[in-house]
Specification:
It contains 4 helices and 29 strands. By secondary structure, the protein is mainly beta. The protein has one domain: Neuraminidase, CATH 2.120.10. Strands 3, 4, 22, 23, 24, 25, 26, 27, 28 and 29 form a 10-stranded mixed beta sheet that branches. It has a 6-stranded mixed beta sheet with strand order 1-2-21-20-19-18, with no helix packed on it. The chain has a 5-stranded mixed beta sheet with strand order 5-6-7-8-9, with no helix packed on it. A hairpin with a 4-residue loop joins strand 7 and strand 8. The radius of gyration is 21 Å and the shape is globular.
Length: 387
């Protein structure tokens, strides 16, 4: 299988960014002008040990292409339009964990399901403004005592960190002066990153998903100077890298580079870049990248799904990055609609690898176009590059 040669495109320069104490910070600048060549990669280039898991159809609560899915080692959790569903690791339906509503055992607005590392509980924001996080026991399916949020803050999104601690990102109207803060399970404030309104880059957290954790770091793009991605953990919030055209400070911020973090695994950050007329201006083009922990970047033009014989480019590639990649640490999942799965199985049978052909045909025989998604679940692996 072809492996692209990638020359060294990472240019380091000193970029002056205002931190809390206004000390200059050295930030890597990635020169997008050196990333003009687009590469074609295969799913099996970046995913190993792939399992094919169809999600059992629940007639009263069908999933949609906007369902929010959390894939763990023991459970798969999915939001339908009006319910949160629990499946086992093979996609068999176990129970309805919660339904939409305002009463006991109900959730007014479903957020992304956040699960602790041992898969004991799923945590949900009930509503943007109620200042608490709901907790459901995944063994019993029962609601337990909700977790109060420090300062009674309205929650935009949040992530489970470790040892029953949470990283909370307050909503814009929350009564707090922190971009984010850490609290314990009792709602006690531990630490936070204070807002500064004297030139500090502000962050746009509304696109962050809980899946954007990698090795206990959260990644976010910035709000007003959209060329910067920040790396956040319990102790600090620091610029991680900058998208630039020529790799120098004069070019930063002018062309309108807007990197968005679409997902993270232990091996890659999935990045989309909106190239606009200027920061915050009209979007001209979209580009898609993979970045490894060494900040080596691949400009992705096509992803070939060599498991079911389909491919993603153009709008299909955008949809893959936006909605179909579920990347969570040491698990990566590709979400395939029943329609796409059936179309590929019937239209491209000779392109399906022999190792998967029997399994795919057996699943296809049980599906209709209206069934739930099929998940390709595996482990992230590093691209092999010929030097």
């Amino acid at each position: 299988m072809y492996r692209p040669f990638l020359s060294q495109i990472l240019i380091f320069t000193l970029l002056i960014v205002f931190s809390c104490n206004k000390n200059p910070v050295s930030v890597p600048v990635i020169s997008l002008n050196e990333l003009n060549e687009e590469f074609e990669i295969y799913l099996t280039d970046i995913i190993s040990d792939i399992r094919i898991v169809p999600l059992e159809f629940v007639k009263a609560h069908p999933l949609t292409n906007r369902s929010r899915i959390n894939v763990g080692k023991k459970y798969i959790l999915c939001t339908a339009r009006d319910a949160l569903l629990q499946y086992n690791s093979e996609g068999r339906f176990l129970r309805i964990l919660a339904v939409r509503g305002k009463g006991p055992g109900e959730i007014e607005r479903f957020s992304y399901p956040v699960v602790d590392k041992d898969e004991r509980y799923v945590y949900l924001r009930n509503d943007y403004s109620d200042g608490k996080i709901e907790r459901i026991n995944l063994e019993s399916g029962e609601f337990e005592k909700p977790i109060p949020v420090a300062f009674s803050s309205a929650v935009e999104t949040f992530a489970y960190v470790d040892n029953d601690k949470f990283l909370i990102i307050p909503s814009n109207w929350a009564p707090t002066e922190y971009y984010y803060f850490i609290q314990d399970i009792e709602g006690n404030f531990i630490s936070g990153h204070e807002m500064k309104r004297d030139g500090l880059i502000q962050l746009n957290f509304r696109y962050i998903r809980p899946q954007q954790l990698r090795e206990d770091y959260l990644y976010s793009h910035s709000k007003f100077t959209g060329d910067t991605v920040f790396r956040i953990n319990q102790k600090s919030m620091k610029p991680y890298f900058v998208f630039g055209g020529k790799g120098n400070t004069n070019d930063i911020g002018k062309p309108g580079y807007n990197p968005f973090v679409r997902g993270c695994t232990n091996e890659y950050i999935f990045l989309e870049n909106w190239l606009s007329e200027e920061n915050g201006g009209a979007i001209k083009e979209n580009y898609f990248y993979l970045m490894d922990p060494d900040l080596e970047v691949f400009n992705i033009g096509t992803v070939k799904n060599d498991i079911i014989g389909s491919e993603y480019r153009g709008e299909d590639l955008r949809d893959l990055y936006w909605d179909k990649i579920i990347a969570e640490g040491d698990i990566i999942t590709i979400e395939i609609s029943a329609m796409e799965f059936l179309s590929s199985a019937s239209g491209n049978p000779d392109e399906i690898p022999m190792d998967f052909r029997q399994r795919i045909f057996a699943i296809a025989d049980t599906l209709t176009e209206n069934d739930n998604q099929v998940l390709l679940i595996g482990k992230p692996k590093r691209l092999e590059i010929k030097k």
